[in-house]
Amino acid sequence: MNSPNDTARVLVQALPYIQRFHGKSVVVKLGGAAIDAELDRALAQDVLLLRSVGVRCVLIHGGGPQVDAMMRRVGKEPEFRNGLRVTDEETLEIVRMVLVGKINRDLVGTINREALEDPVAVGVSGEDGGLLQVTPRESSLGYVGDVSLVRASVLHRLLDEGLTPVVSTIGADGNGQPYNINADEAARAIAVAMAAEKIVYLTAAPGLLEDVADESSLVPRLTSAELRERIGHASVSAGMIPKLQACADAVDAGVGTAHIIDGRVPHALLIELLTDEGIGTMVKREKSW
Amino acid sequence: MNSPNDTARVLVQALPYIQRFHGKSVVVKLGGAAIDAELDRALAQDVLLLRSVGVRCVLIHGGGPQVDAMMRRVGKEPEFRNGLRVTDEETLEIVRMVLVGKINRDLVGTINREALEDPVAVGVSGEDGGLLQVTPRESSLGYVGDVSLVRASVLHRLLDEGLTPVVSTIGADGNGQPYNINADEAARAIAVAMAAEKIVYLTAAPGLLEDVADESSLVPRLTSAELRERIGHASVSAGMIPKLQACADAVDAGVGTAHIIDGRVPHALLIELLTDEGIGTMVKREKSW
Amino acid sequence: MNSPNDTARVLVQALPYIQRFHGKSVVVKLGGAAIDAELDRALAQDVLLLRSVGVRCVLIHGGGPQVDAMMRRVGKEPEFRNGLRVTDEETLEIVRMVLVGKINRDLVGTINREALEDPVAVGVSGEDGGLLQVTPRESSLGYVGDVSLVRASVLHRLLDEGLTPVVSTIGADGNGQPYNINADEAARAIAVAMAAEKIVYLTAAPGLLEDVADESSLVPRLTSAELRERIGHASVSAGMIPKLQACADAVDAGVGTAHIIDGRVPHALLIELLTDEGIGTMVKREKSW
Amino acid sequence: MNSPNDTARVLVQALPYIQRFHGKSVVVKLGGAAIDAELDRALAQDVLLLRSVGVRCVLIHGGGPQVDAMMRRVGKEPEFRNGLRVTDEETLEIVRMVLVGKINRDLVGTINREALEDPVAVGVSGEDGGLLQVTPRESSLGYVGDVSLVRASVLHRLLDEGLTPVVSTIGADGNGQPYNINADEAARAIAVAMAAEKIVYLTAAPGLLEDVADESSLVPRLTSAELRERIGHASVSAGMIPKLQACADAVDAGVGTAHIIDGRVPHALLIELLTDEGIGTMVKREKSW
Amino acid sequence: MNSPNDTARVLVQALPYIQRFHGKSVVVKLGGAAIDAELDRALAQDVLLLRSVGVRCVLIHGGGPQVDAMMRRVGKEPEFRNGLRVTDEETLEIVRMVLVGKINRDLVGTINREALEDPVAVGVSGEDGGLLQVTPRESSLGYVGDVSLVRASVLHRLLDEGLTPVVSTIGADGNGQPYNINADEAARAIAVAMAAEKIVYLTAAPGLLEDVADESSLVPRLTSAELRERIGHASVSAGMIPKLQACADAVDAGVGTAHIIDGRVPHALLIELLTDEGIGTMVKREKSW
Amino acid sequence: MNSPNDTARVLVQALPYIQRFHGKSVVVKLGGAAIDAELDRALAQDVLLLRSVGVRCVLIHGGGPQVDAMMRRVGKEPEFRNGLRVTDEETLEIVRMVLVGKINRDLVGTINREALEDPVAVGVSGEDGGLLQVTPRESSLGYVGDVSLVRASVLHRLLDEGLTPVVSTIGADGNGQPYNINADEAARAIAVAMAAEKIVYLTAAPGLLEDVADESSLVPRLTSAELRERIGHASVSAGMIPKLQACADAVDAGVGTAHIIDGRVPHALLIELLTDEGIGTMVKREKSW
After folding, report:
1. Which residues make up the annotated site Transition state stabilizer (chains A, B, C, D, E, F) (predicted)?
2. Mean pLDDT, to the nearest integer, of B144-169?
3. Which of B212, B223, B167, B215 has the alpha carbon at shortest distance from B191?
4. How far apart are alpha carbons C172 and A108 in whole angstroms?
């Protein structure tokens, strides 16, 4: 329980961070792991608070587990190759329905519920306004694409209007054929194209760990070069690799900092951006902390 | 096969219509009936052409048959009461996935494919930016809502940016709970809130017929008062009643004209708006044709 | 000492207030009593934090004690009639120098020091751009004026540019003759002309007290009508009367709420605006809390 | 007679051209040869239609025959040297009256008549706003000038306001002395200065002919280099030479394409710009058709 | 010869007038009487100076004598009925050529010559952008029209761009048929539609005279009511009546003041607007000088 | 006494200068020497007149003698080292009060008095909006600073709003500590940062003199190189040296011309800028007069 006095002190301690990030873009990638309603609500509050202090937040979400569930519900077994979902036409349709028609909707709804009189969240798929243009990855995977072009102005125009975009990572190729895109990778491409100040990955781990079995062995900060070295190590979990790769690529392409933080901690985003302590792992191009 | 000469003549005949509708808003409601890819492509071309001559088009779509199909696919039987879908939580989730995650996506994709280098279509759900706020209709129907507020600025801002909104008719109540909305009714509410020049219903009939069994018995034009008189008649098919009601309500609330046209005719929209002949039934408040 | 977790919780609790006051104008009157450097610094942080969440703050200051000190330093004894400073030409010159050339400067300096890379405070006297036009009060008082016109656009234009005005309450009559103005009264006139959401008086008391000798007898809220009734009471200190009068007048002329709070409490302004508890006395036109 | 269906098809075929030329500038030079009222009306419709699909049209006109007629009417014999009109002071005054006060007026009137409620055409002489600044060509020709500076912003500002400029090719030197300018040449200078997408010459021939005596021997397209080679050939009529020269110069200076088309064909402009077939001769810098 | 000192004093004396007229519109009607090049130059300087101090000047010109001369040159005798020119089609064409193609051109040229590096004058006919819409006066007069609609935005948009419009008083009816308009009357209609601060008639007389034979009997100021009384008097010359009528009508319709001044005095316009003395006759609605 | 005719002639002679300086910035430095009320009034008129013809004037003032007087009044003796005021904390406070709270106020008041209904002057200290950032000069001088950064946008934004800034030359270092700045030097830094057309020093001498004892030995114009050569000469008064240095530095850093003129001559500023004669000494980078 905080006294009003404590409250003021806390707000004032956040001021230098607010001043630093005002007007900057921050791209936040949510994990596809089963999302807790209370955590979602806390995240919505974080995003609205950051917006109210002038941070331009874009949310990117995946949705692997929910897609798997829906596929099984219609009697289709998910299939993966090197960690990537084999995506035939029927799968693509299900991916699209689940991401755009369910997960994105729930996120938009949660934010707008917290936003009270001024609903600011809008759902965006990578197909809208040609936001994410893709090239096919390899034919054996079916409709799985790599981002070849980001039309960042679609997002900037929404942000300029005071709206907060929530992005599903479906893209389209030059012929308008939709493709499934890895969400970690799409988040990176968007952050780079927006010249974002930060990209933040919310994960089900405290960050990058020295020892994957020991949650207290967090690596608080490292350079992109140091990060690249670790990617091959045995100590790194397979699921973490695309995120680590994306973090290194993002900062090397001009994004200010990349963060891997624990999405299971309520308000982790706010803590990472507006407090001295921070949580999770931060990646920069140069050693300048 | 047209000669260049004919081409020019046709274009020039369209000029007075172009001059009249430039800068005006036109709301187009697509039927939920199974949509033909070729017809969709023709509609996409119509919308892009109207946009290029300065018409501000908004597309609204339903999707009843596709929702039914998906429900059955996951082993759930659709249930209706007085023509309205009984919508429990699971049904709502399926409606939302099909409308927002499938039908809307396909329409956006089709338009952007025709738009070539300049993808302009963006999908919008009534939940985005609080576009459609609803109140529940009656508890026995579950999550079926009536539009109580339209935030038309969400659409006008997209149109001002040169984007073409494609709207799924899911709304939310004051607590952010999503609701299913009748698409005919949502289209009317949007047209009125936008102060649209026209609302156009694309249907699977030539328009309003004197004799429902005789497609040649089209009523080309009538006032909203005349239309209201006919709504009770035996000659009117049940499925047509909500559209007729919406047409009468729209023009009485200030929309310039309401049209019921045949969505099975390629380019019906363009023909209705840019040629002398027109097709289908036109409703105005006053006898001024 | 707050944990990051507490920090986040505090920030999130402030969110509804931030949403409510975003884009609104708040006029803050500082007392002329000797100002503590640390308190000033806390106030500067409050103003910057409010600015960063979109509140349009204007600071108004008086400076009676400092004027008295300067007068005595040049060998002139301050003289008052009914609580108002008798202001001959020499006194006016000293008032102006102390208010505009010293107190205003110190406040601007303190805010800009906290603002780091983005110095946003600008000093404004009521003579600048004709901000405060006055008529003389009564000849025996010399150059003491009442505000007859506020050119609020001078302040709005600065706020639109992202600047934070700090106002000294010197005005000028139609012939450009400067006049001294009561700062409580000038703050009210400015808040009304700006159609401010709030006017806040920082005083050397906890607020309006039931019993002036008992600081715990605070009246937390009352209507302007209730306040007017109390103004004549013996329980009200003489120095408080102009502030109470100004509060009642402000809310009756359209300002949302008026507040009298304790300027001796660090961050009192932030606590009053962004926390549930609030401190001090709040005045509204109607009983709607 | 077209069916509505044909109409729609024609409109849709024009769509890719509309998309390509939207927002681009097109400079159209009308011949000075006796102009048929019906052809003028068709041209006015073409210009209005192009404007309605976002093409920024500027019309440039000459007027040789009408000047000759007026000169003879006041008892003065036209005199030419190397195809250029010898222009003494009295001649200059007649040229100016006929171009600005008659031909320009008739064109503006014709367009505004077709534009119905929204008269958009405005007459502009090269003297207005200093649009065309000239240097004298050679003293023996009198007041005949070459364009030395085009203030294209005069035209762009009118186009930005939705107005359609109709330009008479009178310019002025640095001392404000008016000069007569060759209209083919002025059109080229304007197109280059505007960074136009197209310059179109409407002539009394089908275009560039292989055999000047055989109207079916049209050269449909060639590069500027190929065009320059032909200019000296016997097969090219003298009157065509300045146009050919201007076409080659225009595309070499950055104008997208130059066209010589048959002004005697109704709607030739529209056919050339918005249909697959095109008519007349098209010149580009590179062989890229 | 003025000393620099005198110069400064003169400039400073003009300051209050400059402050008063800054941003205001002033419509100046030039007489059609033979215009002296030196007087024209002085007028151009006046207009440029007024423009440089923020006055929005519009020039309107007639041209009776020059039309007569041109008509006779092509062998046609001018004919008048009740002071109005009988205007058959041929006459209309000559009127248009002389006004738009000669007088307007000369004025534009003179102003741009004085404007040096920044040519700001643009010629406008009442047909351009539909500026002056007319209804025919009476059939026996042929193409003589009365102004029924002024599209003042055409002029305001040019003025907003820093351009100075010079207007020829040719208008068009709803079918685009051009008509000759009395210039005094057109100037009034334009001043009223622009909500001008002043309308100024430059004439070949010192103003309104008590005794038409005595140039020293100037009436310096009178109300519109007083002016209307005098219009019928024998002392008023026939040629002055339309101007007097227009002055009274203009101020009664909201124009600030109307002036009749001596166009034969160099810089009469500047003297009237920027000095204490003024020259000529001033008309106001109320006696407030 | 001027006749209206002379008045007009004078105004017209100023026209070319007005055309040349329209939209340009002019920085005017006023001497700190005792200022005569009548001269101040004349200067205010000059500034308002220049503003009304589109010149963007910024006034910079010093105030040495008035600071000395105030210091003595509170019993403190002014102390100088190499012509620079030794500035301890108490001195700094007095300097700030006198400059910002007295001299600046009087100038703002004088201009607004002359500006009548439209008070345009606003006082600005170098601390406002961080206008003047400084580094300390040398510790023995105390709080005397050199300008290290000018935030010229503070001034440009005020000018864009139609306001006229009057600047006191107090600046602040990175920690917000205020410093006294030499006003001649601050004026130069501001003129350079604004890319001003002119910097004008109003002094108590006719300009640069060949023989300091002979006021008729004025050097009317010279290059910055010629000026630098003279700075060391015995003929140059010590007080003039910083101004001469500043003039040479200003034009070498891109300011169009620098002027030293006689502030004792009423309207000297206007005479220098708007008449052929000019007064005082003009410095340019190149010999191009």
Report:
1. 29, 243
2. 96
3. B167
4. 54
| B72 touches A at CB < 8 Å | no
Q: At residue A133, what is the residue type?
A: Q
Contact indicator for E196, E57 with CB cutoff of 8 Å: no
Any idea what the Cα angle at residue D120 is, between residues D118 and D123, rounded to 5°? Answer: 145
Distance set, CA D141 to CA C188, D87, D145 (Å): 77, 6, 9
Q: Which of C208, C217, C213, C210 is nearest to C259 (CA)?
A: C208
Report yes or no: D9 at the B interface, CB cutoff 8 Å.
Answer: yes
ipTM reported for the complex, 2 dp: 0.91
Chain segment F37-74, per-residue pLDDT in tens: 888 899 999 999 999 999 999 999 998 889 999 999 99
Chosen from F1, F3, F10, F11 to mutate, greatest number of chain E CBs within 10 A: F11
Q: Are E116 and F16 in contact (CB under 8 A)?
A: yes
| Span A253-259, average pLDDT | 96
Restricting to B residues 153-172, those with a Cβ less than 8 Å away from any Cβ of A are 154, 157, 161, 163, 170, 172
- On whether the CB atoms of residues A281 and A222 are closer than 8 A, the answer is yes
Cβ neighbours of residue A221 closer than 8 Å, sequence gap 6 or more: A281, A282, A283, A284, A289
CA–CA distances in Å: residue B73 to residues A187, B67, B90 = 33, 10, 13
HEC profile of D237-270: CHHHHHHHHHHHHHHHCCCCEEEEEECCCCCHHH
Tell me the whole-structure pTM to 2 decimals. 0.89
Query: Which of C1, C12, C21, C40 is best to mutate for the A interface (most A CBs within 10 A)?
Result: C12
Q: Helix axis angle, F104-114 relative to F37-52, nearest 10°?
A: 60
Average pLDDT (B21-46) is 85
The answer to whether residue E220 neighbours chain F at the CB level (below 8 Å) is no
Query: Which residues of chain F are within 8 Å of residue E2 when distances are taken between CB atoms?
Result: 2, 6, 9-10
CA distance D57 to D4: 29
Contact C12/A117, CB-based, under 8 Å?
A: no
CB pairs under 8 A between C and F: 110
Question: Do the Cβ atoms of C142 and A46 come closer than 8 Å?
Answer: no
Judge whether D41 is closer than 8 Å to chain E, CB to CB. Answer: no
- Per DSSP bridges, beta strands A145-150 and A178-180 are unpaired
Confidence of residue C1 (pLDDT cuts 50, 70, 90): very low
B63 CB burial (10 A radius; 0-12, 13-18, 19+): buried
- Give CA–CA dist F15/F10, Å, rounded: 9
Using alpha carbons, select from E261, E245, E203 the residue that is nearest to residue E64.
E203
**What are C215-264's pLDDT values in tens digits?**
889 999 999 999 999 987 877 887 788 899 999 999 999 999 999 999 99
Q: Sign of dihedral through CA atoms A94, A100, A101, A107?
A: positive
Taking the C-alpha atoms of residue F247 and residue F245, their distance in angstroms, rounded to an integer, is: 5
More confident residue, C26 or A10: C26
Please, is D17 exposed, middle or buried when counting C-beta atoms within 10 Å of its C-beta (0-12, 13-18, 19+)?
Answer: middle
Domains of chain F, each with CATH number or no CATH = 21-284 (3.40.1160.10)
DSSP string of F227-283?
A: HHHHHTSTTS-GGGHHHHHHHHHHHHTT-SEEEEEETTSTTHHHHHHHSSS--SEEE
Tell me the residues of chain B between 119 and 148 that have a Cβ less than 8 Å away from chain A: 119-125, 127-130
- Which of B13, B19, B266 is the closest to D52 by Cβ? B19
Q: How far is D233 from C225, CA to CA, in rounded Å?
A: 99
> For residue F249, what are the contacts with CB-CB under 8 A and spacing of at least 6?
F188, F192
Measured between beta carbons, the chain E residues lying within 8 angstroms of D102 are 93, 96-97, 101
Judged on CB neighbours under 10 Å (0-12, 13-18, 19+), C253 is middle
Q: Which of F204, F224, F207 is nearest to F216 (CA)?
A: F207
